[in-house]
Structure formats: C-alpha cells, structure tokens
Amino acid sequence: MVMASMLRDPRIHEYDILAIQEPWRNPFAVTTHHPAKRVFHLCCPAGDEAGPARICFFINKRLDHKKWQLKEHSRDICSLTIEFGDDRQERQHITIHNIYNPARRSESDSTVLTDVRTILHNNLSNEQILLGDFNLHHPMWGGANVRHTDPESADLLAIMEDFNLSNKLPPGTITYQAGAAHTTIDLCLATLGVVDRVIRSQVDRDLDHDSDHLPISTVIDMRIQQLDATPRRDWKRLDEKTYHKTLKRALPPLRRPATKTALDAYVQEVVGAIQGAIDKAIPYARSSDHARQGWSEECSAVLAEAKRLKRVHSQRHTDESWEAYRAARNHKARTIKKALRSAHREQVEQAAKSPEALWRLVKWAKTRGNQAPMITPAIRHPETQQEATDPKAKADVFREAFFPAPPEADLDDIRDAQYDKQIDMPQITEKEIKDAIRAASPLKAPGPDGIANKALQARTAQLAAHLTRIFNQSLHLGYCPAHFRESATVVLRKPGKDDYTAPKSYMPIALMNTIGKIMDAVIARRLSYLAETYHVLPPTHMGGRKMRSTEHALHAVTHKIYETWSQNTSHVASLLLLDVSGAFDNVSHIRLLHDLRKRQVDEKTVKWIASFLSSRHTSIAIDGFRSTAYQINTGIPQGVVSEQHVTRWRICLLGRCATLEHKVCLPIEAGTIFMYISP
User: Fold this and answer.
1) Which of these, 546, 563, 647, 420, lies nearest to 655 by C-alpha position?
2) CA-atom Rg of the chain in angstroms
3) What is d(CA 216, CA 442) in angstroms, rounded to the nearest whole number?
4) What is the three-class DSSP state of 91?
5) Lowest-pLDDT range, 370-379, 462-471, 475-484?
6) What is the pLDDT of residues 45-96, one digit of tens each?
7) Helix, strand or coil for residue 493?
8) What does the longest C-alpha to C-alpha distance in the chain come to?
9) What dihedral do alpha carbons 255, 261, 264, 269 form, nearest 10°?
C-alpha cells in the first residue's frame, strides 16, 4: 500500500524524478503499480529469469523527452542520463544510477558492486549520482553507533574513493526503520561536480507513506528544459449553440471546384471553418494534480494516523507505542486496499452499462500483463547497428524501416492487360456521407488537423452538403485532395517481442485527417458492395467482410477436412499457413491498380486511389516528439479502411486457388492466409 498512497500524494508531483527500490511486485504485469500515469513516465527494467525488476524510475512528464535517456543494465541497476543547461550556460550531462544491492547472507550470494564499478567507469565523461538501497553497514555513513561492519562495504568505499563520490547525507542519518532496527543502508553519493549544485539532501518524513525505508529528498540546482504541455480539447464540454453559430458564419459558399487547385482551396476553407468553430466552442481540458482515483478522505485520515504513531514509536521505543503503530499500520493497509478495490469494482460496473466501455475493459484485462512503457528504449539501426537515443534520431530510423523502397515488381504479365467493362458507380450522396459520419467513433484520435469525428457529428447536416460536393468533385477529377493525404504516424509496440531495440518490433499506425477518413469510409463501403453484389471475391474469403469471422474460416477448414476423409479414408489432410511479410509496406501500386480494374472497379475510383497513394506526407510521433513531415510514395498506410480492403483483394488474388482441384484458399486478414490443401 506504500506506492498506492505515495503516488497519489499531490506533493510527489512537485518532484522531477523518483528513484524507487523494491517497488511493489505486480502479479499480472512485468511493471509495478502506476496510478500517476498523467504525471509520470514509469521507466522499469524488463527483469530476467531471476524475477522482475527491483528498481525503477518515475520521470515527470514536464521534462523534455529529448533531454533524458534511460539505460537498463539489469533488474537491479538502471541509469538515467540528463542533459541540463540553457542558453546562458554550457550544456552538460549528469547520470543518475539507481541500484538495489541485495543483502548477502552467504559468500555465494550475488552483489551488484562489480557491475556498478564498470557502469561508473563507462560514464566518466558525465557527472554522476549513485543512489539506492545498498544493504551495507559502515561507520562512514552509518555513524559511530554502527556495531557490525559488512565486509562488502570495503568494496563500496573503494568505489567512492576511485570515482570521487561523496555521501550527501550526514553520517548516522537513519534511512531504514523497522521495529527496533534503526540503521543507514540507503545512500545518495555524488561526484565532485554535483556536490556544489546540491541545495539539500535529507530524509523527508513528510513524504513518508509508512515504508520501512524513509524517503530521501535531494534538490539539485540544474536547469532542465521543460516540455511545453500539449493542450487537449475537452470534447465533452462542447457548446453546441456556439459551435453551430460560429461554423455557420465561417463556412464558405457551396461550390463545385473545376480544378485540383480550386478543390484543395475549398477543402482548406472548410477545414479552417471547422477549426475556428472548435476554438470558439470547445475549451481545453483542465488537469488537476489533486485528482486521485479511488482515494478517499478516510484513506487520508488513516494514513496520517499511521504516520503519527510511527513518529511516536521512533521517539519512545516502547512495546505500547509499537503495538499502537502496528495496529494503525494494518488498519491503514486494509482501508486503502478496500477503497481501491471499491473504485475498481465501480469502474467495472460502469463499463458494463455500455458495450464500448465493456470492450475497453476486456482489452485492458488482456493486455495488463504486457503493458508497453510510454518511452521507447534506444533504437538500433538495422544496418549500421548504431543506437538512436533522442526522439529525432529514433524517428529517422523508424522512417527508413516503415517506408522502405519496395522491391521492383515483375509486371510483364500485365503490360498489355485487357479489362472488361467496368461497373459504373453513381455519385456520392449526402446519405452515404451522413451514414459514414454517424458510424465513426466520436473521440478517436484525430489526424494532424486536430478535428475529431465528434466535430463532424455535431453538425452533420450542415457539413454534409459541402462534403458531398468535395467528394464528388474529387472523384470526377480523379484527384485526392492534399489535405486527405496528410497523416501522423504513431509508433506502437508489437506485443510479445524479444528485442525492443529493433525497429521491426514496432508497427506504424497512420492517423489520417478525419474528413479524408469519411471519404475513405464511403469508398470502402462501395468496394464492399461491389465485392458482394458482383462476386468479386471467392466465397471462402473471410477477411474484411460483413457477417464473416475467424470462426467461419475455422468451420470451413474443418468441413473440408471431414469432407476429404469421407471421400477416401486413405487421404491425409494438410493445412498450409502463410504470413505475407510486409503486406502493407511492399504493395506494388501498379499491380494493385491493375487488380482493381480487373475486378471491374470504375475508373474514377481507381484514379482516386492512385492519387491517394502518391505524394503522401506523414510525420512520425514518438515519445511526445513529432518529426517534420516526410513525403512517401511507397506502400499504403495502415489504418486506412479502403486501402485495407484493396490489399485484402490483392492477398486474395495472390492465394487464389479455388479453381484448382481439391484445393481451397481461406484468406483471413491482410497479411494472413489459411490455405487448406488435400491430395
């Protein structure tokens, strides 16, 4: 319960860095308890076969991500390097080493001091702070009352001498207090260059949340660049009357642009009108440092009482004071545990009231054992093997990995292709646009323009007339407006990977501008209609089709297996599973457009898709940093509905074997094919 109460203490939010030893062990995840996600990044080593990490950092989100870098050494050691200084002083670096040295009960027990010496030597160019739970007793830091000196303390003294480390706590300062035991085992050691910058370093009992180890507060005079907080809109506080009035006044007159340039200008005018209305009608969210979910006044009261009785016992050292403190401590633990459990159950009860919230709860339950950290580690370039540590360098590595030049496709078989008569599609109607807007998730992450779907849903009737003209003229011209081809690429971890320093352990998700996504959804619905009405796809194709799922694919496979066995008992059924690597990244645009024409898709739609795929621009968002926009002409963006439909068609044609005797192909998703083959 120590971390549960400490991380909910508003005073903790004033600190830039929290270095924790022996954090609470989460039985469901490899990380620890983290109720302050809005304020702190949790940086926790991965652990090893011996167990989870025994140290971690909480780093305040107000610090600029580009100015600090975490390095994991083991489950007992990690280092945080910080760049400090401003325009008035030279840029310098300081490395903070957070360690846990387990108490040695025999000569065979391990020690971290050997590794500490190596790590300190590797960071000699920086000023350094070595802090943590050393579990060592010596008069040098424990004072004259130390009765037993640990042999290993001599190794620590040698390290202090070799690297000019000074103890910032006065000798004899009690840092560990459990029952009758009062000793000094938690240290804060600093190199000479840091000593002059230390304003204070002391035990701060006001921050004690009833732990055996007392909190040590160290304040250092360093100017660390602060990160400008990105404001978020509070969409729940939308003033519909103001939004409607502002939007009506700002929207341009209805028109049908005859050229591509005029169409781009019309789109920008509509986008600007929506953004202006958002500025007027939707305030920014106000965050509160005092919001503590699950925390109650009773929790605060029992915590204060336990801390009071702990101070009393530290002064009196009687059996009565110990018994009173022990009872208060147990009561505090039960009270906080009950309050947090009640809050969690209340959340579950609220989630059960809507399918969307319930599925979010299911997703949390599935992923809570593998929650990704909010800051990526150093990324290793796959060719040069150099490590990228700052966000800009990481973005460059990811750009090369996500948007490679695709291998040259063999197009000899389609150079003189002849196409059947294409199926004409009618103009896009306002009803189609309204249906697509209503179906969109209202608060889904917007693209670079910051317009969420809720902004379109708030005035659907008002915007539908403009969007109808824009979409139809876009198809008529065979041109996708430049605004629709802008995106922000978010870098997400692939779960269950062994090495997260490799770019291939991450996947890109394109956040497109929402107006473009509405047109994309309309095109996707039309492609689905075409596929089902004109039987473009074989009946065994399951991916991306309504009323079909993985269960249908499995039933189809088992049916074919039983069918084969019933025809001839000597037959052996075989199942071939294919995973098309880089299905999105390596799509040949020319062959993709050929396949669409082969499937009789109308020429206007084909040209629009060709325009969408060319001269796209995206920026990469990672660790709170957003790169400059890159121009990309390869692959297709993941997260775009119509392009995923097209890719599924491409995969289907790749594995199409329904015309071959005794074979059936079951494409499931864009990169996965179940292929049942019988002799």
Assistant:
1) 647
2) 31
3) 46
4) coil
5) 370-379
6) 877 777 888 999 999 988 887 788 888 899 999 999 998 876 555 678 899 9
7) strand
8) 97
9) -60
Which percentage of the chain shows pLDDT scores above 90? 35
Nearest-angstrom CA–CA distance, 254 and 302: 65
| Residue 241 confidence (pLDDT) | 93
**H helices, E strands: number in the chain:** 19, 23
560-593 residue pLDDT tens: 888 878 877 777 777 777 776 766 777 788 888 8
CA–CA separation, 205 vs 191, rounded Å? 26
Token digits of residue 482: 């430049």
Chain center to CA of 121: 34
Cα–Cα distance for residue pair 224/62, rounded to 1 Å: 10
Residue 52 in tokens: 């989870």
Which tokens in the block code for residue 473?
Answer: 């003229």
For residue 653, pLDDT beyond 50: no
β-strand partners of 42? 58
- Assess contact for 138 and 106: CB atoms under 8 A: no
Residue 512: per-residue pLDDT: 92
* Whole-number Å distance between alpha carbons of 141 and 137: 8
Q: Where are the beta strands (DSSP E) in 101-174?
A: 127-133, 166-167
135 in Cβ contact with 113 (< 8 Å): no
Q: What is the pTM of this model?
A: 0.72
DSSP reduced 3-state for 622: strand
In this structure, are residues 93 and 69 in contact, taking their beta carbons and an 8 Å threshold?
no
pLDDT in tens, 142-161: 988 888 888 899 999 999 99
Which residue's structure tokens are 């063999």?
410
Cross-strand partners of 493: 506
Rounded CA-CA distance 493/377 in Å is: 11
The 10 Å Cβ neighbour count of residue 227 is 16
CB distance 277 to 269 below 8 Å? no
Q: pLDDT band for position 430 (50/70/90)?
A: very high
Q: What distance in Å separates the CA atoms of residue 523 and residue 106, rounded to the nearest whole number?
A: 70
Residue 214 to residue 225: CA distance in whole angstroms: 30
For residue 488, which of 511, 506, 518 has the smallest C-alpha distance? 511
According to DSSP H, which parts of 403-500 are helical?
430-439, 453-458, 460-477
Identify the bridge partners of residue 669 per DSSP, sorted by sequence position. Answer: 672
User: Are residues 57 and 36 in contact, defined by beta-carbon separation less than 8 angstroms?
Assistant: no
Q: Are 670 and 620 in contact (CB under 8 A)?
A: no
- How far is Cα 623 from Cα 299, in angstroms, rounded to an integer? 34
For 373, other C-beta atoms within 10 Å of its C-beta total 16
Instruction: Give the integer Cα–Cα distance in Å for 259 and 579.
Output: 43
Task: Check if the beta carbon of residue 131 is closer than 8 Å to that of residue 187.
Answer: yes
β partners of residue 562: none
471 SS3 class = helix
CA distances from 256 to 227, 566, 607 (A): 44, 63, 19
